[in-house]
Amino acid sequence: MIIRLLAGTAAGLALLSGTAHAEPVKGAPELTHNELYKAAKLPKVACKPVKGTSGASTKKYITKLVGCLNSAWKPAIKEFKPVEVKFKEASDKRSCSTGMDLSGSLSEICATSISVRLADDWIKAKDDLKVFTSIVMTWSGVVTGQTGIGEAWWGLENGASESVMHEHNRRYYLQIDCFAGVSAKSLGRVVKDWKPVIKVPDSWKNRFHGKTANRLYWIEKGYKAGKPGACNTWTAASSKVA
User: Fold this and answer.
1) In a 3-state reduction of DSSP, which class is residue 109?
2) Fewest CB within a 10 Å sphere: which of 71, 131, 150, 192?
3) Sign of CA dihedral 98, 99, 103, 105
4) Cα separation of 236 and 216, whole Å?
5) Residue 98: Cβ-neighbour burial (10 angstroms; 0-12, 13-18, 19+)
6) Of 5, 11, 3, 1, nearest to 208 (Cα)?
7) Is residue 28 over pLDDT 60?
8) How many CB atoms lie within 10 A of CB 4?
9) Which of helix, strand or coil describes residue 55?
10) What is d(CA 223, CA 183) in angstroms, rounded to the nearest whole number?
């Protein structure tokens, strides 16, 4: 088994050679038949936080957004635990998940909370595209964490095959995209073009998100359905997670 060095929303990978062929995941019911997929459509949550161009207004925006996400997902996740947001000092550039120093704004899961470092790229922005996208994508990690999906993904066997490992990672990150679409629908976010959304860079420049066409497919699928069951990437054909 290839060891996955999971760090927040990024994965460091030790690559080994192998001949196994990638295919829909089998023998991992926590992924393919997770209880989450039976959840009803997420409720409509009135959530219209306003992001100004000051640090205080941006913090208020993020705090309200996370509160809305708590309300949206609570009915769908068994034994749901509300998540808090904690703001780092501007001088603290160290990522809790990788230990690396990163520039710019950052949201990541640290322990059981969402940790946010604010910088001018979010604070001074006239629109909320970057901050909304980052928080909602990070929130998808809350979903995988509280439903056992993240742990099950971590433990997947891959036959020491690089190609299988890469496909497993794409299935995971495309599911993150799909859950983000579900969140956006529940919060009443109107999105007519998802291309600017998936172009928002993450701190890791993660190469496991998949092809642009497939990222658009999964995030739009989640948005249109508005429920987690649309996001089962683990049983999808390999072509849909390339």
Assistant:
1) strand
2) 192
3) positive
4) 15
5) middle
6) 11
7) yes
8) 19
9) helix
10) 8
- Please state, in angstroms and rounded to a whole number, the distance separating the CA atoms of residues 195 and 80: 31
AA letter at 24: P
End-to-end alpha-carbon separation of the chain, Å? 21
Contact in structure between 173 and 205 (CB atoms under 8 Å): no
Query: Helix and strand tally (H, E) in the chain?
Result: 8, 5
Distance of alpha carbon 72 from alpha carbon 44, whole angstroms? 7
> Can you name the residues that pair with 11 across neighbouring β-strands?
6
Distance CA 45, CA 13 (A): 38
Q: What are phi and psi of 61, to 5 degrees?
A: -60, -50
Question: Alpha-carbon distance 46 to 61, whole Å?
Answer: 14
**How many residues does this entry show for the chain?**
242
Residue 206: φ, ψ to 5°: -65, 125
Distance of CA 164 to the CA centre of its chain: 21
Assign 4 a pLDDT band (cuts: 50, 70, 90).
Answer: very low
Read off the pLDDT of residues 93-133 as tens digits, 9 standing for 90 and up.
788 877 777 788 999 999 889 999 999 999 999 999 999 99
